[in-house]
Amino acid sequence: MNTKLGVSNTNVSVKKRAISSSRIKANIRTYTMISVLVGIWIIFTIITGGTFLSARNLALLARQASVTSVLAIGMVFVIVAGHIDLSVGSVLGLCGGVMAILQSRMQWDVIPTLVVIILLGTLIGAWHGFWVAYKKVPAFIVTLGGYLMFRGVLLGITKSVSISLSSPILKAIGQDYLQKGAGIILAVIAVIATIIMVFKARASREKYNLDVPPIYQSILKVCLFSILIIGFVLVMNNYEGIPIPVIIVLCLTLVFNFIATKTKFGRCVYAIGGNPEAAMLSGIDNKRYTLLVFIISGFLSAIAGIILTGRLNAATSNAGAMAEMDAIAACVIGGTSMTGGIGSIPFALIGALVMASLDNGMSLLNTESFWQQIIKGLILILAVWVDMSTKKK
Amino acid sequence: MFSICTQTWADKEVKVLDEYILEMKNITKEFPGVKALDNVTFSVRKGEIHALCGENGAGKSTLMKVLGGVYPYGTYEGDIYINNEVMKFQNVKQSENAGISIIYQEFALVKELDVGENVYLGKLPGKAGIVDWDKLYYETSEFLNELGMDINPHTKIKDLGVGQQQLVEVAKALSKNAKILVLDEPSAALTESEVQTLMGILRELKKKGVTCIYISHKLGEVFDIADRITILRDGRSVGTYDIKDINEDKVISLMVGRELTERFPRENHTAGEVVMEVKGLNVYDPDGTGSLVINNVSFQIKKGEILGIAGLMGAGRTELVTSIFGGYAGKKYGEIFINGKKVEINKPGDAIENGLGLVSEDRKRYGLVLEQSVTTNTTLASIDKICDWGVINSNKEYLNTSQYVKELRIKTPTLRTKVNNLSGGNQQKVVLAKWLMTKPKILFLDEPTRGIDVGAKFEIYNIMNELVRQGVAIVMISSELPEILGMSDRILVMCEGAIRAEFDYRDATQERIMYYATGGR
To answer: What is the structure's pLDDT at B262?
Structure first.
């Protein structure tokens, strides 16, 4: 949640009204995103006669959304900086392929394999970033080139056959579940952390003489988050526990959302995307940050590759095909502006969940895949239209 | 002045009425909050070259946009007569059909197409949608020959020089059967010989009966070519004269002859030691044409003074300060000394490290990230000051921002309000806050009060004085002469990328500044 700071020396009543109105505005946005998601869930629940909301299906859904989510986190940075990355699907596939080859054909250990894969993804990101930032080639072109090149490399090294993994650990990354007890412990830690953060923020606001929200608001906030956290863990535990990929997504979200909102790096990326000239004249090194943004995208593509390959327990030559489109769609549904400067990681994850829910629900209904594509495409356009028309008012 | 010229009109009106090809009567055009044109009457005789002069913002371009149908009939008051017939232009096309052709400073040519295609753009000859290319190129070369231009109609526009592009614009206008040709600052980008060619062609056209309205800052050219001259000041016409009845000094005094009614909070400053010295600065055009936008400029900035830089649009003032700041795309050569030490400023980051700040000309384009908050914008240039190990310390961020919001009295509902939602004056103060937070030793202000209300202007002047008291050196670019005269301690006048004059403010007058700004030596 955004915390709003007030100007302490101006008229108090004006200040309070302005704060609450801007808060409501931000909330309306959140509500539209969430209501789209809930709407889709309700429709599928009714049509499937409740199967959609079963613990098993929700666990599968969360796992399905994880690959798109990881890519979407990186894509938010790229799009916010005013660029696009069309290569993430191919990079994901390539990283999975190399991982399978290193691990099962060359018998590498798990740790060195993972290190090399993550390094590979990061280097590919740096390659794209170098061309975009320092050679001024448009990101669309550079990453379209990357999209073709790295898919080509994957086809070359796998000879278009799928390579299965032999390591149970790598398989576990994609398929396993956290033990139920561990899930509960995690939930308790998360609830405690929420309480500490909410009240620390209050204390800090008191210290600096800022207006502090009424105590019931803070308690409500804590309760809401606690219910969400505990509810989520209980539902997951009702099946097998929290899927490992979902844990990875949650950790990455915490880290990268922190980077996006609380660090100099994040601040500069948003400024560059919002107004590159103003950022440059304010002494920000646009090129360096553009490079870093693509490095993040490459790094996360590698992680997504590891998760997907683990889940399939094999690397295939078409793994991650069209994944870039899902990631971009997730960002856009989550309110990321294609012109740069605006976007949020949590919202993009809701977008990823929307995409995954459509896939999952329609698969449950045995909808033919061509229909799935048609409907996903339509929902994408509608979601953005709704978002834009509510923003104008 | 005004009364004299209306009187001459009154005397002649009956006799010469039918001579006028164009009359614009009592034109008033208002924009929200500004009267751009106030009851302007402008008459042009058939076959003359009529110069239109005035400072930046005097209303010349607005008047021509009214004539050209850019502002459709009904959005302005008053009437336009062509050959004594009332015209009600709804769009540019109707104005063109009435024989009016306007050539703007920014050419309306498609660079990737060739000369012939550009001349016939929008009216390609042919049948059933199939272009008759032979006819097109044949007629284009006829036009070009007629104008005495040696240009191959198959050459792409991007391969032509600026001067030749200008001539293509003229040819394009003539191909539309233009009776009245309007040239807006035609010589701004031309070399001396290109100007001569253009002048020759205009004289040729005059012999053929084409009427020409020539807008220019350069009085030398105006007196060279025009038959009559109309001077605008602050949206009003201050007189129309036969060129032989008037001289350059008189024109300048009419251009700037306003009463200095606005009051400025002038304070006596004592300039200290030289904090910055620029020696032999040359800056090239970023388009790679090899032309100089800044030509051998040298000057000093002293501690605790306000140095005003005056000049007309296109004089190179913005290019001068942005290139010093390391933010200009063109190559630069020259030396910059700060406190006697030579410094290399290759990017704005270097400039900030050396204690420079730049409040740039267009705050929405160069100053602010509009979708971000007051806090983000205020801290943008000194983000390291609010970070611990790269992580933003929101307390430091809040304290710093609220301090400047308070000091500069920025009116904003909250510190998290998007700057997009603030008024122009408050936006400008946010930009100022951003630079004050970097604690600059030398602060460049490029048009610091453009487009903001009087109250906010005054506050910004007071802030400038306060900064000077604290020992900051201020360099202020302004197109408003009263502001230059009212605030500066020392005044530099720029024209065509060079410094043409330097004054102490006590010696400077609007007329003297304008003399050098319009190319006088």
So the answer is: 64
